[in-house]
Amino acid sequence: MHVAHDFDVLVIGSGAAGLSLALHVADNAKVAVLSKNKLNSGSTSWAQGGIAAVLDDRDTKESHIEDTLNAGGGLCEYDAVKFVVDQGKEAINWLIENGADFTKDENSNVDGDYHLTKEGGHSFRRVIHSADATGKEVQISLEKKVKEHPNITLFEHHMAVDLISSDKKNRKTQKCVGAYILDTKRGKVDLFRAKATVLATGGASKAYLYTSNPDGSTGDGIAMAWRIGCRVANMEFNQFHPTCLYHPETRTFLLTEALRGEGAVLRLPDGERFMDRFDERAELAPRDIVAHAIDHEMKRLGVDHLYLDISHKDDDFITEHFPTIYKRCLKLGYDLTKEPIPIVPAAHYTCGGVMADLNARTDVKNLYAIGEVAHTGLHGANRMASNSLLECLVFAHSAAKDIAKNIGHEKFSENIKPWDESRVRDSDEEVVVSHNWNELRHFMWDYVGIVRSTRRLERAARRIDMLAGEIREYYSAFRVTPDLLELRNLVTVSDLIVRSALSRTESRGLHHTLDFPEPDPDMDGRNTVLKPPRQPYRK
């Protein structure tokens, strides 16, 4: 049996962005928050480092803005950067008021002072954190508040299939009126009507073989927004975190950049340091530079990993500042206090996404995008460390204000048909999905990874075209499943990544191609914008 729900605001995604928006808007609206799995299964809970904001009187907003612009390789939009930085302290105070507990500075004479750390690209200590598990602390505190709010209904194990347009034939007049949602426990697709729909679905790093992200980071929001008619921008800029633990039992455990901020160094297999050969900032250079350096040395030496070493620091300092990492590494056979730890770069953050303005509005009326799913102009060609959680908080607030201002003028659409599965059947070929999933992630890693070339990108494009055709055929014949939906979305997003990468004939920020190894001054300030087909994709 299919179910229909009506909510003023439908929030697809349950991380820092989605939960923050729900809390901001719920006093005056009936809100649904959807999570693909459990509420805490998204990327927020995995964030180790912290949140960047100007909290020290010796620091300045101008410095934070300049650092962000420098890291962004000439593609950040100044107004967006200033908008986010200006609201940094207010966002942190809001989190604290809602129960977030950040690490205090034991050396401060001022009661209540917080410990601030420094990460790559920052010229000052401005990253507030909760030991090495900031995202988990933020998630827990927001979840507690959301569960207490009478106007918020939580739907775990619910996955969005597609957004619903009021007018499929005319994109100029269309608006988003809700979404079809798969209840993964029941195996049924339900209708959620909404006056405002918010994409807070995170990024698309599961397009790659090695990633620091949870399994749900499959680009769902980007793909759905593209299908309904939204532009996307800068999809070629995929951030690879330089230091993911290299271990056969775990391909997703991140070793936070704060380790390097507190003195950890990168070493070759023979123990030699090497980062000073690539950048005067050495281990504290922006992530793209560090990732390129590691990739270069691995290929030069023919090895599959390098090492991160903080064992020269005091044992108590390590276990107090990085308790989560210390315990996890110890469980896997490595002692952070006594030896270097094997590392490999891994896909970490999607810097591009659905184009959204400073109110988080997309090209489609009543559809908003916040957090990693969105392209707001903040990150440019490379995200600076710890700006991402700040972006979630700031744009959740601005979107909530815009929704509250406009929602009173909206009505529920009366002409939405329930999900029709009368012409499909249960799949008897699940091997097609698993095979295509593995093939996609392997060739994206090999051809569209840290270092690219035109030939590699063209090979990837041909394979994506083939997979897309198979998936369209499969999707039209069988009932939807979570794996099929995620694969469908990943293929769409991978296509957008490759097309964007082919159109950027230079190397800049996170996009490095062997055929155009230098930045092109003529492309300064030029974002890669892709427009969807004139006719929306049909379900």
Distance between the termini: 20 Å
- Please compute the radius of gyration using only Cα atoms: 22 Å
CATH superfamily of the largest domain: FAD/NAD(P)-binding domain
| Percent range of helical residues | 25-40%
Number of helices: 14
Shape: globular
Summing up helix and strand content along with how strands pair, one would put the structural category as alpha/beta
Mean pLDDT: 92
CATH topology of the largest domain: FAD/NAD(P)-binding domain
Query: How many domains would you count in the coordinates?
Result: 2
What does this structure look like?
With 539 residues, the chain is of the alpha/beta class. It has 2 domains: 1-45 and 139-237 and 351-386 and 396-539, FAD/NAD(P)-binding domain; 241-348, Flavocytochrome C3, Chain A, domain 1. It is 34% helix and 16% strand. It has helices at 16-25, 61-71, 78-86, 88-97, 134-148, 220-228, 258-261, 287-301, 315-321, 323-331, 388-406, 430-447, 454-477, 482-503; strands spanning 4-12, 31-34, 51-52, 116-117, 127-128, 152-155, 158-165, 176-183, 188-199, 232-233, 238-245, 265-267, 306-309, 341-350, 353-355, 367-369, 374-375, 529-530. The strands form 4 sheets. Strands 1, 2, 6, 7, 8, 9 and 16 form a 7-stranded mixed sheet that branches. It has a 4-stranded mixed sheet with strand order 17-15-10-18, with helices on one face. α1 (16-25) runs parallel beside α5 (134-148), α2 packs across α3 and α13 (454-477) packs antiparallel against α14. The chain is globular and about 65 Å long.
